[in-house]
């Protein structure tokens, strides 16, 4: 089998391709990623697929190191790999076409200072003009996380923009959080913790999967009397 150069070239090509796809998968995991971040990774990967296909057509294997290590890969094989990449690109386009349909909505959330005010919904146009004309807010946007920036906006001046940001940020970008919750639940709820109630379990999960800090001072104020041993 190792002497079969055609099998080796196929194996090398798909290994290289899976490495690229695995890199995409890793980028899409983790906390604090909004749907626009995921879409940015997907768009970048689609552009990479176009680049790969074009380079293979020119016998350029720069981004396929394992395939490049196979001596004398024939042109027919390279054409097959090029076609496979084009088909994969088409599948990405088809599978994620819903993202393309809301591209403008995502752009408003991601880069509100760069969008064309005439190309957005009418209820956002005036607020975007006010936002883009405010240099102080522009500087704040550059120096703050997106969610914190939208939290800092005036609810009186930018009610529709805030509502739009809430809608976009509430969209689940991946199943990472759900998987984390289930893993945490399995660790907490076991045979040795048979007295763990559903209420306590819910509290455990909320603490484990959020970044919210308990308001200790407020909690202490609610206590009129403390146990003598504390």
Automatic annotation (TrEMBL):
InterPro entries: HATC_C_dom. It holds the Pfam family Dimer_Tnp_hAT. Residues 142-201 form the HAT C-terminal dimerisation domain. GO terms for molecular function: protein dimerization activity. This is General transcription factor II-I repeat domain-containing protein 2. It comes from Araneus ventricosus (Orbweaver spider). The gene is GTF2IRD2_462.
């Amino acid at each position: 089998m190792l002497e079969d150069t055609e099998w080796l070239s196929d194996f090398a090509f798909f290994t290289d391709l899976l490495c690229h796809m695995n890199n995409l998968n890793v980028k899409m995991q983790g906390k604090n990623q909004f749907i626009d971040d995921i879409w940015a990774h997907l768009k970048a990967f689609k552009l990479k697929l176009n680049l790969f296909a074009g380079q293979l057509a020119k016998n350029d294997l720069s981004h396929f190191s394992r395939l490049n290590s196979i001596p004398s890969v024939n042109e027919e094989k390279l054409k097959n790999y090029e076609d496979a990449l084009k088909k994969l690109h088409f599948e990405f386009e088809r599978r994620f076409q819903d993202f393309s349909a809301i591209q403008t909505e995502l752009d408003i959330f991601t880069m509100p200072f760069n969008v064309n005010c005439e190309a957005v919904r009418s209820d956002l146009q005036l607020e975007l003009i006010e936002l883009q004309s405010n240099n102080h807010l522009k500087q704040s946007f550059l120096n703050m996380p997106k969610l914190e920036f939208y939290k800092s906006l005036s609810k009186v001046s930018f009610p529709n923009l805030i509502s739009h940001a809430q809608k976009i940020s509430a969209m689940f970008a991946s199943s990472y959080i759900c998987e984390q919750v289930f893993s945490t639940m399995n660790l907490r709820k076991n045979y040795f913790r048979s007295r763990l109630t559903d209420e306590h379990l819910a509290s455990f999960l909320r603490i484990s999967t959020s970044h919210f800090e308990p308001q200790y001072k407020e909690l202490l104020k609610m206590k009129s009397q403390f146990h003598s041993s504390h």
